[in-house]
Automatic annotation (TrEMBL), chain A:
Keywords: Endoplasmic reticulum, GPI-anchor biosynthesis, Membrane, Transmembrane, Transmembrane helix. It is found in: Endoplasmic reticulum membrane. Its main location: endoplasmic reticulum. Pfam families: PIG-F. This is Phosphatidylinositol-glycan biosynthesis class F protein. The keyword Transmembrane helix applies. It is a multi-pass membrane protein. GO terms for biological process: GPI anchor biosynthetic process. GO terms for cellular component: endoplasmic reticulum membrane. Pathway: Glycolipid biosynthesis; glycosylphosphatidylinositol-anchor biosynthesis. InterPro entries: GPI_biosynthesis_protein_Pig-F. The chain crosses the membrane at residues 21-43, 55-73, 85-108, 120-139, 160-177, 197-217.
TrEMBL record, chain B:
It is found in: Endoplasmic reticulum membrane. Pathway: Glycolipid biosynthesis; glycosylphosphatidylinositol-anchor biosynthesis. Belongs to the PIGG/PIGN/PIGO family. PIGG subfamily. GO terms for biological process: GPI anchor biosynthetic process. It is a multi-pass membrane protein. It comes from Aristolochia fimbriata (White veined hardy Dutchman's pipe vine). GO terms for molecular function: CP2 mannose-ethanolamine phosphotransferase activity. Residues 527-949 form the GPI ethanolamine phosphate transferase 2 C-terminal domain. This is GPI ethanolamine phosphate transferase 2 C-terminal domain-containing protein. It holds the Pfam family PIGO_PIGG. Gene3D superfamilies: Alkaline Phosphatase, subunit A. Keywords: Endoplasmic reticulum, Glycoprotein, GPI-anchor biosynthesis, Membrane, Transferase, Transmembrane, Transmembrane helix. The chain crosses the membrane at residues 9-32, 480-504, 525-546, 552-575, 587-607, 632-651, 658-679, 699-719, 753-772, 778-796, 808-826, 846-870, 895-919, 934-956. InterPro entries: Alkaline_phosphatase_core_sf, Phosphodiest/P_Trfase, PIG-G_N, PIGG/GPI7, PIGG/GPI7_C.
Length: 226, 1013
């Protein structure tokens, strides 16, 4: 069984001090930026000109960083080895992609062979933003997932780190879909370009928010302990 | 806080609705112009230079000379001899110009060319000249006919009057012809007869409202052709052929019937050409003008503003002009309103007063150059008169002497002022150069004379085109005060409705769970989202492309709402992981929500819809490619499934078995009739409606009506409180309190009545739709029905997770999404006119209007009617709940919710869009996008009223019934407790027997009891 709540919070703070949080977030964002740059330089492609290739580069670059980074933050370091955490993250990738893709299609994403690769690559990226971090950190612990996504009762830095960017990415993607029916005839209105932009923007905002929360949390911790 | 009683809510709601109607009426009256800019008829004064005091028209009108004199007077004043004596105006309804002239520099396709060999030979021999005559939206017949004969662009609301044609009183060509004593003959669409009653010497009207008939309707016109062409007494012969439009409505642009129909039209043109034009007798020359009132979309519908619909034809046959080649005869663009001034000049009558058309230059090439100049001068003067009425300050300002102005005008080589000033500048330039030309006419040499002449003509054309464009898109002065009053009344009404809903919901929440959840203060995600969605949708209507593609927005919002429901189910109810619902139940919830979402996605994919991506592949297009057989399989399968599911849901009701079997039987018979109707009659490609098809459809209407009325009127009074249960209760000495009786016996009973009425209504509605809708829409109808059942089931399982108003709002959302899922859009073109004549044996505007409304608003009305089953009692968990007065009071007003929520949500959209329409009044798309949408919004409002009134009426009946039931039960229970044990046993036996024949009226049942003892 999981330890009592007070203990858990204490453990959280102990096991994931601010620098660690900062480092993981920084690495994730850096990987995104680097992947964009890489795609631009080597394939001379951007999200607008070649969404499939760019999204592929993005999620492949993001994949190891997220897995390895969040592996350090795993919830139960005593009972679960580092590589086991990474392993369950890997299982989370296709599962999350399946969830994202079916969600997008139900919300109206176009179906068809010509959209298949676009939808797939997009859903892998969204999976890395949403499901994979929490799969790596929490594994199959349903209660933690419920706390994180169901009740929004968030305690501790790791919870913020997992929950805020994930929610940000989903909400960002939702808002990103709004320009699609407009008749501006811009190439970026195509599926899934503006939705990807929305998801990335939302993710980054979530990261920033979680960092702010972490700072505030740390300070209040300090004042309390003094 | 003031409590809301039943009557108070009802009174407030009714007041708000009435206010809304008044506000809407005022706004529509003010916004949509119904009167033309100038009144009266053009007379001899139109041959004078326009002056600023424009009262001369009325003075002249009083003493009009007799026709023959007037004709001579016109000819003398204009200086243009009329080139023709007789006009044959052949209107081919719905013929796209593309079929005859081709599209974008390309000749028409081979099949089209082969279908009309004679017309094509006329075009290539230079005997005819054709134009792509752009029609203005709305592209429906009557407004377009008005535009053809008057040259004016009528008010937008003409589309509403299209079903109820009225006499055309504005100045028009036919009136002008009448005044010079022409004899006119009309054969064809009876719209002409309604517009010009008593004008025609001979007439044969055919109705445009039997869309299924493509053969007889044209034969009825052509049979007069030989006699009329032999008769020499007429000056104007109008032939209006409707068959081609009907072919389009049935089978679309590429229907197999299209080529034969075009060939038939070609033969008629050949007959007219060879008998009337080639054999001119004694200088009587004839002009044949073939026009179409509008085009058609790929699906064969029309009404909107796409290129396919506005691309109508104007073909002049028999002009004595020299047209070089096929390309110059076909690649010409004009406007539909240009036809009226051109014909007026060619036949020597004044141009109708409100015409905004410009002469078509090539058609005048039979006239001498000076006459051409005079013609365009007259056209310009007529346009100036219109401008004078619109912009008196510009043309009638304190002008200096004529010469100074003219000199100034000539100095400016180019007119680059603001719009209105530019028009003035153009006009001055034209007049000035005309004056100079007149001075130099005598002195100068011939070559420069001709050159200058052409220059002056060009100047006039410059002015005419610019002013015609400005006039047709002019910003008419709206009575702003009227609009402001209308909008503020609507605002007040929607504030009242929304406020009422808010208070009501708060009160219901308080009563439903006074302690457990802190209702009212804390908002849940689904509630916040519903509010946000309503606002987002209302605001999104400010963008023209969001209006065009509204189907995406509704689907996106509804799917998101159900994703939020799914989220609630997945993560369990609120705090406790799964405190009061077991895991299996939750799994079922998730399954239901998921299947609802998947149904919604298939529905979205059925019709691509909208404007910009409407050509993308979708399920309906795919099915059409698969051929009629698979479509029919799908249709039959949908019918069987809808009927089966409907019967099953009725079967689930436990009480009143005999009555329910009766209802089921009648529904079953009806569905067999519908099936028969589809199998036997709908698959014939020609779509000729036979007598038997009509009578079967009428029989279906009758049985559906009888079933619906029978169930709603009798069911509440036939439903007994199960006597067996009463007996049991008596045995256990259970029925000690009134509330327990109510809880244990009345509530289930009332619920069953609601279910029975609601489900019967919904099934009847679906069967009606299956009969009326296009056959490809049977699939979406099934999906909608399944969605409705799933949604109902979901709401009955989840209990009070969602607030009542959220549930009603979710149903309303589903209804609006389904509206677009059935292939509707915000363009008038997607209205399915073909279905509006099913089962009508004679033409009736009112009945086909009602059928059209039923077809178009199938989905919103389905979900509104389903609110009859709305069960407010699911919050009541135990008989103790009922003891509090508040709860009983709540049960009294329980039916407020399904009425208030749709009214409030709709009022938000209506008011917002009214304000948007006012703000967008100068927008380029105001007539093509925003105004059609406004008509849809108004019609949706009417739909909401109808649905809400039905629900309220049925609920009111149930409420009355509940009181009677309560009375009966309390009487019976109190009576029974006083009995001795032996009597009781005996009575029990009687009751048990009686419970099998359960079709007993409660009062008679009580009487039986009394007599038994």
């Amino acid at each position: 069984m999981s330890p009592p709540k007070e203990l858990k919070i204490a453990l959280d703070c102990f096991s994931s001090p601010l620098p660690k949080v900062f480092a993981v977030h920084f690495l994730c964002c850096f990987a995104l930026a680097a992947a964009f740059q890489f795609a631009h330089v080597y394939y001379s492609s951007s999200l607008v000109s070649d969404p499939v290739k760019t999204l592929l580069v993005l999620w492949i670059a993001e994949c190891p960083i997220v897995l390895l980074g969040y592996g350090f933050l795993r919830q139960d370091p005593d009972s679960c080895s580092y590589w086991k955490a990474v392993g369950r993250g890997i299982i989370g990738i296709p599962a999350g992609a399946l969830l994202s893709a079916s969600g997008a299609i139900i919300l109206g994403a176009p179906v068809g062979l010509q959209y298949l690769t676009k939808t797939l690559n997009w859903s892998f990226l969204l999976s890395l933003f949403t499901v994979v971090p929490s799969a790596t950190v929490f594994g199959p612990s349903w209660r933690d997932w419920q706390h994180l996504f169901g009740n929004l009762k968030i305690t501790g830095n790791v919870d913020h780190m997992v929950s805020l960017p994930a929610h940000g990415a989903v909400i960002g993607a939702w808002f990103g879909a709004w320009p699609m029916p407009l008749d501006w005839e811009r190439p970026w209105q195509e599926w899934p370009i503006c939705v990807s932009y929305g998801a990335i923007t939302g993710y980054l905002l979530g990261v920033i928010a979680s960092l702010i929360f972490a700072l505030v949390f740390q300070r209040s911790k300090h004042t309390k302990s003094e | 806080m003031a409590t809301l009683t039943c009557t108070r809510v009802a009174i407030f709601t009714i007041c708000a609705v009435l206010l809304q109607v008044v506000g809407l009426f005022l706004f529509v009256l003010g916004f949509f112009p119904t009167k033309p800019a100038l009144s009266g008829v053009s007379g001899p004064e139109s041959y004078n230079f326009p002056t600023c005091n424009s009262t001369d028209g009325h003075v002249e009108e009083l003493r009009r000379p007799p026709p023959e004199q007037l004709k001579a007077l016109y000819e003398g004043l204009s200086g243009i001899p009329s080139s023709f004596d007789r006009l044959v105006l052949m209107v081919v309804d719905g013929l796209p110009a593309e079929f005859v002239l081709g599209k974008s520099q390309m000749p028409p396709g081979k099949s089209m060319k082969e279908a009309m060999p004679f017309t094509q030979s006329l075009l290539s021999n230079g005997k005819a000249i054709g134009y792509h005559a752009k029609a203005e939206p709305p592209t429906v017949t009557m407004p377009r006919l008005k535009a053809i004969v008057s040259g004016a662009i009528g008010g937008f609301l003409d589309v509403a009057f299209n079903f109820n044609t009225q006499k055309f009183l504005d100045d028009n060509l036919l009136g002008q012809f009448d005044s010079i004593g022409w004899k006119m003959v009309m054969h064809g669409d009876e719209t002409w007869l309604k517009m010009f009653p008593g004008l025609f010497a001979r007439q044969d009207g055919v109705s445009s409202f039997f869309v299924k008939d493509t053969v007889e309707v044209d034969h009825n016109v052509s049979r007069h052709l030989d006699t009329e062409l032999r008769a020499k007494d007429w000056n104007l012969l109008i032939l209006h052929y409707l068959g081609l439009d009907h072919v389009g409505h049935i089978g679309g642009r590429h229907s197999v019937l299209m080529a034969p129909k075009l060939n038939e039209m070609d033969e008629i043109i050949r007959t007219i050409y060879t008998t009337a034009i080639l054999q001119e007798s004694a200088g009587k020359s004839t002009l044949l003008v073939v026009v179409s009132d509008h085009g058609m979309t790929d699906g064969g519908n029309h009404g909107g503003s796409s290129y396919e619909e506005t691309d109508s034809l104007a073909l002049f046959v028999g002009l004595h002009s020299k047209i070089q080649d096929y390309t110059s005869a076909t690649q010409n663009a004009a406007s539909q309103v240009d036809i009226a001034p051109t014909l007026a000049i060619l036949f020597g009558v004044p141009i109708p007063k409100n015409s905004v058309g410009v002469l078509i230059p090539e058609t005048l090439s039979c006239l001498a150059d000076e006459q051409q100049l005079r013609a365009i001068e007259l056209n310009s003067w007529q346009l100036v008169r219109l401008l004078l009425a619109e912009l008196p300050h510009l043309f009638c300002g304190n002008s200096p002497s004529k010469d100074v102005v003219y000199e100034q005008a000539l100095m400016t080589t180019r007119c680059n002022h603001s719009n209105e000033e530019k028009l003035y500048c153009f006009f001055l330039k034209a007049v000035a150069s005309h004056e100079i030309w007149k001075h130099e006419k005598l002195s100068s040499s011939t070559s420069s004379y001709v050159n200058d002449l052409h220059n002056v003509t060009a100047e006039y054309y410059n002015f005419s085109r610019a002013s015609a464009q400005w006039l047709s898109r002019r910003v008419t002065d709206k009575p702003l005060a009227l609009l402001a009053v209308g909008i503020s009344i609507m605002l007040i009404s929607s504030v009242v409705l929304v406020g009422l809903l808010f208070l009501f919901s708060k009160q219901v929440g308080k009563i439903q769970s006074p302690d457990s959840r802190n209702f009212g203060s804390k908002w849940h995600l689904d509630e916040v989202f519903v509010l946000a969605a309503v606002l987002i949708h209302a605001v999104s209507l400010a963008s023209s492309s969001m209006v065009e593609e509204e189907q995406y927005i509704w689907h996106f919002l509804t799917a998101t709402l159900f994703f939020i429901f799914l989220r609630t189910s997945v993560w369990g109810q609120l705090a406790g992981a799964s405190s009061n619902s077991c895991n299996g139940d939750r799994f079922f919830q998730i399954l239901l929500t998921l299947s609802l979402l998947i149904c919604g996605r298939i529905l979205r994919g059925w019709y691509q819809g909208g404007v910009n991506w409407t050509h993308h592949p979708d399920i309906s297009k795919w099915l059409e490619q698969m051929g009629p057989v698979s479509v029919q399989y799908l249709q039959v399968a949908s019918m069987v499934l809808v009927t089966g599911l409907g019967l099953f849901t009725l079967h689930q009701i436990k009480t009143m078995k005999v009555f329910i079997v009766l209802v089921q039987a009648s529904i079953f018979v009806t569905s067999i009739c519908v099936l028969l109707n589809t199998m036997v009659f709908k698959d014939s490609m020609t779509g000729i409606s036979t007598y038997s098809a009509t009578s079967i459809a009428q029989a279906i209407y009758a049985t559906l009506g009888v079933t619906f009325l029978g169930v709603t009127l009798t069911a509440p009074w036939l439903m007994p409180v199960s006597s067996y249960d009463i007996g049991k209760a008596m045995e256990h000495q259970f029925a000690s309190s009134d509330h327990e009786v109510h809880y244990n016996y009345l509530l289930p009973c009332i619920r069953d009545i609601s279910c029975l009425i609601g489900r019967t209504t919904v099934v009847c509605w679906c069967l009606l739709q299956l009969l009326l809708q296009h056959k490809i829409k049977a699939g979406p109808l099934l999906l909608l029905f399944v969605q409705l059942l799933i949604c109902m089931k979901y709401f009955s399982i989840v209990g009070s997770i969602h607030k009542p108003w959220v549930k009603v709002a979710a149903l309303y959302f589903l209804g609006m999404t389904g509206h677009f899922g059935l292939g509707n859009s915000n363009s008038l073109a997607t209205m399915d006119v073909a279905g509006a004549y099913i089962g009508l044996s004679s033409h009736s505007t009112l009945l086909s209007g009602i059928l059209l409304f039923i077809i178009t608003y199938a989905s919103p009305l389905l979900f509104l009617l389903s609110l009859v089953t709305y069960d407010p009692d699911e919050g009541v968990k135990s008989p103790l709940d009922l003891q509090s007065r508040a709860v009983r009071h709540y049960l009294q007003v329980k039916f407020g919710m399904p009425c208030l929520v749709p009214l409030a949500l709709n009022s938000v959209v209506l008011t917002t869009f009214t304000i948007i329409l006012l703000l967008m009044r100068n927008h380029l798309f105001v007539w093509s996008v925003f105004s059609p949408k406004y008509l849809y919004v108004c019609a949706a409002t009417i739909g909401v009223y109808i649905g809400v009134i039905t629900v309220a009426a049925i609920s009111g009946e149930k409420n009355e019934n509940e009181k009677v039931l309560k009375l009966g039960v309390s009487f019976r229970t109190s009576y029974m407790t006083t009995l001795s044990p032996s009597h009781k046993r005996w009575l029990e036996a009687v009751l048990e027997v009686l419970s099998f024949s359960s079709e007993q009226d409660i009062s008679s049942f009580v009487r039986t009891d009394a007599e038994g003892i």
